[in-house]
Every structure is written in structure tokens, then in C-alpha cells.
Amino acid sequence: MLLTKSQLAKANEKELNQAAEAIKAEITKRASNAKEKVLKELKAVAAKHGVSLESLIGKAPRTAAKPVRGAKKAGGKTGAKVAAKYANPSNPAQTWTGRGRQPLWVGEQLTAGKNLEDLLIAK
């Protein structure tokens, strides 16, 4: 099934896709066969020395399916909302809990000479 350059140039899209799939399947098959051969050889060497391959390297882990992108993992961020600790004196609607990155207005207030205690919300 090897195709020459001229055969590739004459092939339609369907034929090219079929050839690509056949090539991918053969590459996968050869890689799998190579791994099986190496594993068999390693087991033989280990047995020759009176040990099992599993006792040397442990059992091969089963390959788990990759998690779906964006899926939530168990035990994720499930904390309660934290009350605001600081407020912008010029716009009290702008608040900050004191956690995470400082909002721009906090930086502006600090640059203007105020300190964080001046921005605390009175209780």
C-alpha cells in the first residue's frame, strides 16, 4: 500500500484519509508490539535472577481516562463567602476581603499616603 509521490498527488481526499488512518494504525500496532517484546524480555531477565518483574517495579498502573477539561474535581473550592474587610473611602461599593491580589483602588489609596488601617470597614 505504499504510495509514491505521484500517487499521493493523484489521490482524492477520501483516499488520503484512508491511507493516513492505515498508517496511524500500523504505527500504533508496532509501538504496542515493541512494548510487549521489551516487557517479555525484562520478565525473562528477572526470572533468570529468581525475582519477578512486579517485585522489582511494582504492578503496571492502569491507564485512567483523562479528566474532561473543565470538569470539577471532588473536594474543590467550596468555602463560604468571606466578608469584606476593606472599603474604598471614595466609593464604598468597592470592597476587598484582604485575600488575593490587591484591587487597583487599594494601591491608589496606599500611594496617596493612606495605610490599610484607614481602609478598614468600621464594625
Fold topology:
Elements: H1 5-10, H2 13-48, H3 53-57, E1 86-88, E2 91-96, H4 104-111
Antiparallel strand pairs: 1-2
How would you explain this protein's 3D organization?
Belongs to the histone-like protein H-NS family. It comes from Candidatus Dactylopiibacterium carminicum. InterPro entries: H-NS_C_dom (IPR027444), H-NS_C_dom_sf (IPR037150). It is found in: Cytoplasm, Nucleoid. Among the domains are: 12-57, no CATH class; 86-119. The protein contains 4 helices and 2 strands. It has helices spanning 5-10, 13-48, 53-57, 104-111, and strands spanning 86-88, 91-96. Strands 1-2 form a two-stranded antiparallel ribbon. β1 (86-88) and β2 (91-96) form a beta hairpin. The protein is elongated. The termini are far apart.
Keywords:
single chain, 123 residues, mainly alpha, two-stranded antiparallel sheet, 4 helices, 2 strands, elongated, minor groove of adenine-thymine-rich DNA binding, cytoplasm, DNA-binding, transcription cis-regulatory region binding
